[in-house]
Amino acid sequence: MNALIHAQHISKAYGLKSVLNDVSVILNPGERIGLVGANGAGKSTLLKIIAGEVPPDDGNVRVDPIVTLGYLPQVIVGYEDSTVRELLADADRDLRLLETRLRTLETDMTQSTGVHLESILAEYGELTEQFERRGGYDLEQRIAAVVRGLRIDHLPPDRLFGTLSGGERARLGLALLLLSAPDALLLDEPTNHLDSSSLNWLESYLAGFQGGMLVVSHDREFLNRTITIIVEIDEQTRSMKRYNGDYDTYAASKLREREQQQREYEAQQEEIAGLRLAVAETARSNRNYRSHTDSDKFVRNFKIAQHDTTVSKRVKSAEERLKRLEANKLPPPPIPLRFDPALNPEALRARLPIMATGIHKCYDGRMILDAVNLTIYPESRIALVGPNGAGKSTLLKILGCVDI
Ligand SMILES: Nc1ncnc2c1ncn2[C@@H]1O[C@H](COP(=O)(O)OP(=O)(O)OP(=O)(O)O)[C@@H](O)[C@H]1O
Ligand SMILES: [Mg+2]
After folding, report:
1. Whether residues 165 and 267 fall in one domain
2. How many angstroms is it from 19 CA to the middle of ligand 1?
3. DSSP for residue 330
4. Ligand 1 pocket: which of 10, 11, 19 to mutate (most atoms within 8 A of CB)
5. Which of the residue ranges 22-31, 101-110, 129-138, 258-267 would you say has the lowest mean pLDDT?
6. Which atom of ligand 1 is closest in space to residue 189's alpha carbon?
7. 284 plus 237 within the same structural domain
8. Which residue's CA is the nearest one to ligand 1's atom 10?
9. How far is the CA of 40 from the centre of ligand 1 (A)?
10. Strand boundaries in 107-264, DSSP class E
11. Ligand 1 atom with least separation from CA of 48
12. Confidence of residue 1 (pLDDT cuts 50, 70, 90)
């Protein structure tokens, strides 16, 4: 069975900064890989390289020639001036073109013979297989399911992409990608901005997706429900490691690795300290020994010489071991990120940091916020929730006095 994607020995640097260092990833049919790593680790860069949007400095990417890749970038750009209607009309263009080509070949078949007919039949067979694999025969039902599931039918067809809310853009971007019916999905943070109903729909859609997928996400629950392999880009080494299982299994393996690293680090630190002490103490006791007196000068010198040889052997071997350990010092495990806000709510006691009353907001005559009242007390910890397009970001912009 051919791999859908074979990315080998990929390295990439921006200026002097190494982003990916000799990473390889193989995506086989039906595999669901979650790509994880700290912010800036190089996840988006790797997806861009596989999608052919950015060239690697080293290494190569092989995509099975019969495979169509669907790539959802982390930030969707380039659609700002297109309307929702135009974008949707274009989404399934590939499959429509394929269908038209199949109809043409069917007509040609009836009028051809011999070698020509054979070549038409060969192309027809190949394209039919592709059309079927990509769901061309139930295209209409699929379009309806995607449009309903991501509530694209709620978006005004004449609205420009650039004026949609973050969540509306995310939903439309996903819909455009899924409508193009690719064999393999490269998804860069697909759940960012999605409200809970769109997220649930996406999870069930992906559960039924037959092709392979490589998904970047910081959403642990989404990864647990969607993928079966975790590939991690290590922030320090810029290389990659593969863990079979969901996110929780990966997190448990990481914890065990971390504890093991801590134990090895502590054992080495202890050994280094012990050796340093031994070297220093032996040297001191040697000095004491040399100053001891013996009435017989010959016996005394003989004893000292014998003692010197044993001591210098012991010191030498301890020094050599110490040197070896210091040259291969194990690093301590990285310190886990802690959030330690400097904010002191006491200083705000008896004040009202924000009080908003009777907030109204319309866009193009469409009511977004209607008489919203909100008071934020020093101890308030508020989660602002609501479906995509409900006006959450708009309210925050108003509270932050941003021009909108
Ligand atoms: N075009 C570019 N020019 C210069 N530096 C870049 C460019 N694109 C990315 N970088 C840098 O390369 C590093 C990796 O970026 P990348 O977007 O791949 O990270 P990421 O793992 O996707 O992070 P995040 O989790 O924040 O999305 C970052 O330090 C980033 O600033
Ligand atoms: Mg990214």
Report:
1. no
2. 8
3. P
4. 19
5. 129-138
6. 27
7. no
8. 14
9. 5
10. 184-188, 212-216, 229-233, 240-244
11. 18
12. low
The token duo for 299 is: 């016996």
Task: Decide if 338 is inside a domain.
Answer: no
Q: Which residues line ligand 1 (CB under 6 A)?
A: 14, 19, 37, 39-45, 74
Enclosing domain of residue 378: 345-399
Q: State which residues have CB under 5 angstroms from ligand 2, the bound ion.
A: 43-44, 74
Does pTM top 0.70 for this prediction?
Answer: yes
Residues 132 and 67 in one domain: yes
User: Considering every ligand atom, which ligand is closest to the CA of 238?
Assistant: 1
CA-nearest residue, atom 24 of ligand 1: 39
Instruction: For residue 39, give the ligand nearest its CA.
Output: 1
Contacts of residue 285, defined as CB under 8 A and 6 or more positions apart, other chains included, come to: 311
Tokens of 315: 């010191």
**Helix (H/G/I), strand (E/B), else coil: 362:** strand
What span, in angstroms and rounded, lies between the C-alpha atoms of 212 and 31?
Answer: 5
pLDDT(232) > 90: yes
Tens digit of each residue's pLDDT (9 = 90 or more) over 16-59: 889 999 999 999 999 999 999 988 889 999 999 999 999 999 99
Percentage of the chain beyond pLDDT 70 is 96
Residue pLDDT, tens place only, 87-115: 988 888 888 899 999 999 999 999 888 89
- Residue 214 CA to ligand 2 center (angstroms) comes to 13
Q: How many domains does the chain have?
A: 3
Same domain, yes or no, for 200 and 120? yes
* Chosen domain end from 220, 245, 270: 245
Residues 188 and 216 in one domain: yes
Query: Which candidate, 311, 310, 395, places its Cα nearest to that of 360?
Result: 395
Kindly state the percentage of the chain with pLDDT values over 90. Answer: 50
Q: Is residue 89 part of a domain?
A: yes
Which residues, in sequence order, are CB contacts of 76 under 8 Å at separation 6+?
Answer: 169, 170, 173
